[in-house]
Specification:
CATH class of the largest domain: Alpha Beta
Number of domains: 3
Strand content: 25-35%
CATH topology of the largest domain: Rossmann fold
CATH architecture of the largest domain: 3-Layer(aba) Sandwich
Helix content: 25-40%
Number of helices: 10
Structural class: alpha/beta
Shape: globular
Length: about 400
């Protein structure tokens, strides 16, 4: 059930970030609510200390981000979602991803990047998988699904809500389920002409790491004739690209047997034969393996909160140092961090420290980031969460 709209007043001087159109209001900026018990997910209007309207968004207690702004001008919720989702779809048509005959998997809505803070929607060949990162978006899920259906028309078969993994446990029993239409729990999608089995019900995130699409393409360009190691491989995205681009040999490592089962199927689906999969801890594997011409490091987020950043940096340094030691002279390292709290410069400095520890000289070939269907709002630089390097190892 949706809650009645209420108002929030900010402390003097705390309106500056909203005047710069940053879409977050932190809890310490709020002076008063006018009501001591605003339910989580309520749409609230934000006012300055002198009564000036600043924006509207979803309220959530118990977190540092108290309000996620959805509009800096007054608007009704239905019109707002229609405008934002239509804009997201038009953008993806303009960048050539929504109507690409070789790709039918992409991010349809990317939170702040599409003006819908707290919402992520991925498109898998007719199935849209929704994840609400705020209670407000979760309460709006039916409206969101209906609007996506209106905008996409016959391209949409179903909308699956997978918010259980992204909402805080204090919000009670949240069950993943189809909220529009129905489909099998998995399907075969196509990315740049390559086929992948995606299970959006049991898989990590929404089922596939769509944000590495362009980086997978680059890995493929450098793979010919090389012995390639793909660590934290999940379902083998990088491995498929390397194998299909004439890598001499592809080894994939992950601690999850279930993920490697799908990785095996993906290699077979793309008719790749020169590969081997290993169920192992990546750190342990790097201690005992031989040398490779290319190593890909795409670990899960080592730091999801600021207070975990120091330990994350230690982890990235240890991981990169171990990998650099195992790369043949003239080989290539592809290394990534998806930890939003680890800035690009800090990540670069960590790789530098790893190279020094490994006693190797490296040259940066490419800076890597997320693809265009994960756009970064210029007023919200935090949206650039994925950073990476392609480095030549002497």
């Amino acid at each position: 059930m949706k809650n009645e709209r209420q108002s929030l007043i900010l402390k003097r001087g705390k309106e500056a970030s909203l005047m710069r159109r940053h879409p977050w209001v932190f809890s310490g900026a709020i002076k008063e609510t006018g009501n001591e018990q605003i339910p989580d997910g309520t749409m609230v209007d934000i006012y300055s200390h002198n009564g000036e309207f600043l924006g509207m968004g979803h309220y959530q207690s118990g977190t540092s981000i108290a309000v996620r702004i959805l509009s800096f001008t007054p608007s009704d919720e239905k019109s707002l979602f229609r405008k934002r989702i239509q804009s997201a779809w038009e953008y993806r048509k303009r960048i050539g991803i929504a109507e690409n005959p070789n790709t039918n998997v992409f991010r349809l809505i990317f939170a702040e990047g599409d003006g819908l803070s707290g919402l992520v929607v991925d498109y898998y060949n007719g199935a849209a998988v929704l994840q609400a990162h705020s209670m407000g978006m979760y309460l709006s899920r039916s409206l969101i699904a209906e609007t996506i259906s209106e905008v996409l028309g016959k391209r949409l078969k179903a909308v699956y809500d997978k918010s259980k993994e992204t909402l805080h446990v204090r919000h009670g029993d949240v069950e993943n389920r189809y909220i529009l239409g129905s489909a099998e729990e998995s399907g075969v999608v196509m990315e740049n002409g390559r086929q992948f089995i995606v299970n959006w019900v049991t898989g990590q995130k929404t089922g596939f790491f769509i944000d590495q699409r362009e980086n997978r393409t680059m890995v493929g360009k450098y793979s010919s004739g090389k012995r390639v190691l793909n660590t934290f491989c999940y379902t083998g995205g990088f491995s498929v690209y390397a194998g299909s681009c004439n890598a001499r040999e592809v080894h994939s490592v992950d601690s999850s047997k279930a993920a490697l089962t799908i990785a095996e199927e993906n290699m077979q689906l793309n008719k790749i034969t020169n590969y081997e999969n290993f169920t192992a801890d990546v750190f342990d594997y790097l201690q005992s393996c031989g040398e490779y011409d290319m190593i890909i490091l795409d670990p899960p987020a080592f730091a999801k909160r600021l207070n975990a950043r120091h330990q994350a940096v230690i982890g990235y340094k240890r991981l990169n140092s171990a990998a650099i030691k195992k790369i043949t002279p003239g080989g290539i390292l592809f290394t990534f961090s998806c930890s939003q709290t680890v800035a690009r410069r800090l990540f670069q400095d960590t790789v530098i420290a790893s190279a020094i520890e490994a006693g190797r000289n490296i040259r940066i070939m490419h800076w890597l980031s997320q693809p265009k269907d994960h756009p970064v709002d210029i007023y919200h630089p935090e949206g650039e969460y994925l950073k990476g390097l392609a480095a030549y190892v002497e």
